[in-house]
């Protein structure tokens, strides 16, 4: 029994790593290269690294290893930014709530047109109340003092929550039967999609106050969120439209033949199937949106990247910039990697369904 | 009134007029309000300011620029810098991306593992974070005084990378570059025409002649544009506190190129992998049956088919990557976006400059997509000779 098993393992290894002499040579060379890279990294990040809290002086004298005591000492600034120290548990709890919402919305049990929006609106409201305070005996903390991970999460969640309904509206207008509406919407979507996100954020942050009446200006943070949501909606609208185009014509015709009105056709026949078709690219869009949230650093917001730079920006810790980027990058990586793996899993699962 | 509302044609027309008119009205109202606001602050509207001297510096410029140059000139510098960054980093991204994509579909376990690690590592971290990371690394290189040249002429220093250069006038390098592009375009055009009666070996001979011409023309152009009384190859050498000679690549430009090339490569690798996976198995089984070597199967069957499959997706990816070059502002690389935002700070001509920014990106992106779409039309499989 065991010999058979090891036989298949051996033949698998032979087939995939040592099929021909050339293949064997490539495998060995690449393996040596990998080992060298891994060993250098391990040496730097573990063997020669300095662990433990507050060892600033030791890190300064030490040149060849990582200084993880930066993370041990300054992690609260990286994660929470300027949020008042005693209230930081609220910021942490708020992030956990949004994380729970994200995990729950990955479960098929929540995939309905009613449950998903309710889940997100409730989660977002909890997040906002926890962060902002002012009610239930929580001290008020204005958006100006928000920072770090919770600001990144806030912008991401707000953009998705605002952008998704907008995207549906855009997609419906884009494939409207009235030619002028469809053409205008197509033009708007194309133009916005060919602009860089940064220029859109910049326009909404800096230029909009000039062209809006005073009552509509609002806080800079919310203007940037609206701009980002519109940008998101233009991409997502094209994804939804792609999902609609993959539907068979018969679906809509049958609904018409049954005498269903426009909103019934859209709400019960077209959109549910379009979303199902468009699920993998939609998740991909969420991934990209989360990553690009970090661009707000440039506009001057204190998101996790900016708070990380602030944490490593003092003269005491400026030598630990690389460690800081690795730490922040690692946080991004975990979230984005899980989400993209989940997207790949869904794609495989749906491919099975359509076979 | 009731009957009018029930009239479908009227209702449709009214809806459309309301929608388009509403949008146009909104834009016009915003524009007028903006102009009124700016005029209240004492700003003159219009594009007259483009003639004024800027009075600020630009750290990196391909064309002559000083503080007396006009705003229009500064905008031009920015556009050229952005294009320059794109022209360098997109091909590098393509080369790395195709290599990694091929590694992931090569069937060699080790290569697949490495390729997958590369893609997952660099695709799942925001571009701006990677950019700042590379920038920090580049700045942490030894100072010019302590840097040792490697490979006989490349010096990696914290103040920039010094590469050996040619003592050749910039104009002749530009002409040589144009010649190379023209040869490439001519080759594609010949490929697209492929008039009947022309045999395959004839076509190949013509293509070879074209390449030979290009290869001869480039050294000739370099020779003609040589700067007199200097050696042809200019090797950077340590001189006092700094390096002299050669080409200095600033840490800002280098970080932008590395970040965009690697981030783009991770995405391109995925596209290429999908392209290779989309080739029907029968294609290379047929190759095997004909006794082709695995190199020939790769270079003559899989690669050409994969290029044609991935081309449309790649066009989108290039446009997207070009837009990503705007993050250069995070490390003060003076690209188009950075120049515009500095100009807004300095001159206050917000609306006009934003209009220039958006117009510029629309023109560049649309023309890039147009050119790449023509390339796609030229190389795509015609008729029903093969269904994939």
From TrEMBL, chain A:
NCBIfam families: HEQRo_perm_3TM. This is Inner membrane amino-acid ABC transporter permease protein YhdY. GO terms for molecular function: transmembrane transporter activity. It comes from Thalassovita autumnalis. Residues 149-343 form the ABC transmembrane type-1 domain. PANTHER family: INNER MEMBRANE AMINO-ACID ABC TRANSPORTER PERMEASE PROTEIN YHDY, MEMBRANE COMPONENT OF AMINO ACID ABC TRANSPORTER. Pfam families: BPD_transp_1. The chain crosses the membrane at residues 21-42, 89-111, 118-139, 151-173, 185-209, 221-240, 293-312, 324-345.
Automatic annotation (TrEMBL), chain B:
It is found in: Cell inner membrane; Cell membrane. GO terms for cellular component: ATP-binding cassette (ABC) transporter complex. Keywords: Amino-acid transport, Cell membrane, Membrane, Transmembrane, Transmembrane helix, Transport. It comes from the Bacteria. GO terms for biological process: amino acid transport. GO terms for molecular function: transmembrane transporter activity. InterPro entries: AA_ABC_transptr_permease_3TM (IPR010065), ArtM/GltK/GlnP/TcyL/YhdX-like (IPR043429), MetI-like (IPR000515), MetI-like_sf (IPR035906). CDD domains: TM_PBP2. This is Glutamate/aspartate transport system permease protein GltK.
């Amino acid at each position: 029994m065991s010999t058979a098993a090891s036989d298949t393992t051996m033949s698998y290894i032979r087939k995939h790593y040592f099929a021909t002499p050339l293949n064997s040579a490539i495998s060995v060379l690449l393996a040596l290269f990998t080992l060298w890279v891994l060993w250098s990294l391990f040496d730097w990040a573990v063997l020669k690294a300095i662990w433990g809290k507050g060892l600033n002086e030791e890190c300064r004298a030490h040149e060849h290893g990582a200084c993880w005591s930066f993370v041990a000492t300054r992690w609260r600034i990286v994660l929470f930014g300027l949020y008042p120290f005693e209230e930081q548990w609220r910021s942490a709890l708020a992030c956990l709530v949004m994380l729970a919402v994200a995990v729950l919305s990955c479960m098929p049990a929540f995939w309905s047109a009613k449950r998903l929006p309710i889940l997100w609106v409730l989660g977002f409201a909890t997040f906002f109340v926890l962060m902002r305070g002012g009610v239930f005996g929580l001290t008020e903390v204005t958006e100006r003092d928000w920072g770090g991970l919770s600001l990144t999460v806030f912008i991401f969640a707000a953009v998705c929550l605002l952008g998704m309904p907008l995207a549906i509206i855009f997609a419906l207008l884009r494939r409207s039967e009235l030619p002028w509406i469809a053409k205008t919407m197509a033009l708007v979507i194309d133009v916005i999609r060919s602009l860089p996100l940064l220029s859109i954020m910049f326009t909404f942050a800096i230029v909009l106050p000039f062209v809006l009446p005073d009552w509509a200006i609002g806080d800079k943070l919310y203007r940037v969120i609206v701009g980002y949501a519109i940008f998101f909606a233009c991409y997502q609208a094209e994804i939804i439209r792609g999902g609609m185009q993959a539907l068979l014509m018969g679906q809509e015709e049958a609904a018409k033949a049954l005498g269903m009105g426009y909103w019934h056709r859209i709400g019960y026949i077209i959109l549910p199937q379009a979303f199902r078709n468009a699920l993998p690219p939609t998740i991909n869009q969420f991934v990209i949106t989360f990553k690009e949230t970090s661009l707000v650093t440039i506009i001057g917001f204190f998101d996790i990247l900016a708070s990380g730079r602030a944490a490593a920006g003092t003269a005491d810790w400026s030598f630990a910039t690389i460690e800081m980027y690795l730490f922040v990058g690692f946080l991004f990586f975990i979230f984005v990697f899980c989400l993209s793996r989940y997207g790949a899993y869904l794609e495989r699962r749906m491919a099975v369904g359509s076979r | 009134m009731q009957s009018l509302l029930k009239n479908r044609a009227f209702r449709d027309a009214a809806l459309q007029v309301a929608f388009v008119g509403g949008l146009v009205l909104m834009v016009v109202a915003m524009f007028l309000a903006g102009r009124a606001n700016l005029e209240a602050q004492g700003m003159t509207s219009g594009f007259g300011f483009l003639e004024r001297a800027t009075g600020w510096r630009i750290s990196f410029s391909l064309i002559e620029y000083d503080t007396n140059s006009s705003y229009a000139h500064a905008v031009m510098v920015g556009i050229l810098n952005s294009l320059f960054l794109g022209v360098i980093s997109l091909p590098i991204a393509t080369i790395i991306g195709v290599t990694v994509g091929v590694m992931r579909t090569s069937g060699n376990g080790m290569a697949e593992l490495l390729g997958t690690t590369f893609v997952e590592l660099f695709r799942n971290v925001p571009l701006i974070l990677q950019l700042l990371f590379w920038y920090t690394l580049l700045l942490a290189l030894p100072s010019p005084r302590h840097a040792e040249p490697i490979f006989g002429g490349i010096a990696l220093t914290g103040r920039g990378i010094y590469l050996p250069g040619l003592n050749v006038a910039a104009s002749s390098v530009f002409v040589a570059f144009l010649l190379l592009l023209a040869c490439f375009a001519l080759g594609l055009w010949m490929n697209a025409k492929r008039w009947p009666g022309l045999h395959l070996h004839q076509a190949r001979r013509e293509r070879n002649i074209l390449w030979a011409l290009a290869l001869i023309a480039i050294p000739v152009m370099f020779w003609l544009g040589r700067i007199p009384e200097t050696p042809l190859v200019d090797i950077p050498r340590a001189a006092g506190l700094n390096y002299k000679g050669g080409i200095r690549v600033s840490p800002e430009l280098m970080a932008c190129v590395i970040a965009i090339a690697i981030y783009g490569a991770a995405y391109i690798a995925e596209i290429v992998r999908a392209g290779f996976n989309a080739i029907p198995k029968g294609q290379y089984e047929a190759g095997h049956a004909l006794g082709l070597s695995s190199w020939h199967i790769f270079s003559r069957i899989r690669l050409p088919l994969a290029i044609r499959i991935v081309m449309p997706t790649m066009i989108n990816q290039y446009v997207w990557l070009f837009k990503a070059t705007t993050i250069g502002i995070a490390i003060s690389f003076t690209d188009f976006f950075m120049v515009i935002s500095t100009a807004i700070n300095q001159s206050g001509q917000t609306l006009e400059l934003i209009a220039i920014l958006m117009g510029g990106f629309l023109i560049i992106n649309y023309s890039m997509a147009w050119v790449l779409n023509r390339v796609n039309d030229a190389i795509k499989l015609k008729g029903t000779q093969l269904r994939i």
